[in-house]
Amino acid sequence: MGxxxxxxxxxxxxxxxxxxxxxxxxxxxxxxxxxALRKQEEHIKRWxxxxxxxxxxxxxxxxxxxxxxxxxxxxxxxxDKYGVGIHMxxx
Length: 91
Prior knowledge:
By secondary structure, the protein is α/β, with parallel strands linked by helices. The chain contains three helices and three strands. The protein has one domain.
């Protein structure tokens, strides 16, 4: 996605959707809390500020019921560390 935004010349905020729990969540979508945080941080380091600042990266949490309290709290800490926002579906 970042490459497409960069090549086309758009501005964009990218967020990797993460989920570490939840009833009915397909097993292939579930990630460990540590893996989800590590992948999000890699995404920030790779893309945030690229394309002359046109690409921003925020942390992404799918929904409140698909994320553990630990993932939510640690995501907030990392968002503060990097000075970025958090995207979450609420409906």
